[in-house]
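Note to self: the last two entries modelled the partners one at a time, which told us nothing about the interface. This time every component goes in together.
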Amino acid sequence: MTCCHKTVILFISEAKNGFCIRDYREDDFAGIYKVYKSAFSEEPWNEYKKCSLCKVNYGIKESNDPAENCKKCSKPLKLEDYWTEKDVSDDISYAKSKEWNSVLVADSGGEILGFTWAYNISIEKDMNFLKGAQNMDCSKKTIYVDEVATAANSRGKGVATELEKKLFSKAENAGFEYVILRTDERNIAAINLYRKLGFERLLYGVSETNESKYAYDPEFNSRVYLVKKLLPGENIGGNNECKS
Ligand SMILES: CC(C)(COP(=O)(O)OP(=O)(O)OC[C@H]1O[C@@H](n2cnc3c(N)ncnc32)[C@H](O)[C@@H]1OP(=O)(O)O)[C@@H](O)C(=O)NCCC(=O)NCCS
Ligand SMILES: [Zn+2]
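The predicted structure of the combined assembly is written out below.
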């Protein structure tokens, strides 16, 4: 009885959401690349085109009506794609080269609706500038979520939520205790997604005027670093996992 009951719930869940989560396969690459390229072309990333000389990014609007000279290097402007297939493929290979990694896709009848990937990091070795945060123990096993994106026409259906939950569940089963990531505070959708998943900003105490001090990157003023502690069992669900 219990077994049949579970099967019914699984079926309803997949039918309702219209997608399931599974590990990346090489033949997913074209689908991932398509979502990646278009998702990061949008604001606030604006990584649609770049100057072929100095590589500064140009968003969609700027690229459609480009100035004669580059906004950064002032040389005659020649635009090229910001993210090439090789860049994205190298990113995935980098993730896969790590001791622990997970590259996941949201699949809807063979169509890739979204993806995420993450891998183990050592704060001390890989992100030493983040040491000293008060709301995490930097000596504990930690993963870094490098990428997450959902195709524009599939947003708001829980694709990113299900991808991240699966990721956290896998990481938690592998003995990881923290997840960190970085995003841009102007990216309201991402900030809300991460808040809902239980993330908070990496905290470095309070200033003299009693304001919280957070990780700060002088090169990217709006960049924020977020952390979440993995709680045993919290994200186990897996009702959106692909059947095979
Ligand atoms: C951020 C992003 C991955 C969210 O994907 P998604 O599949 O639409 O997210 P979900 O459907 O799981 O939404 C989860 C929560 O995120 C928040 N959220 C998602 N889209 C939002 C929007 N447009 N505005 C405000 N909040 C939003 C909501 O809190 C939502 O919960 P709710 O539906 O109960 O209100 C997607 O907008 C995206 O791909 N953006 C471009 C790429 C990017 O910026 N990636 C993050 C890099 S750090
Ligand atoms: Zn330039």
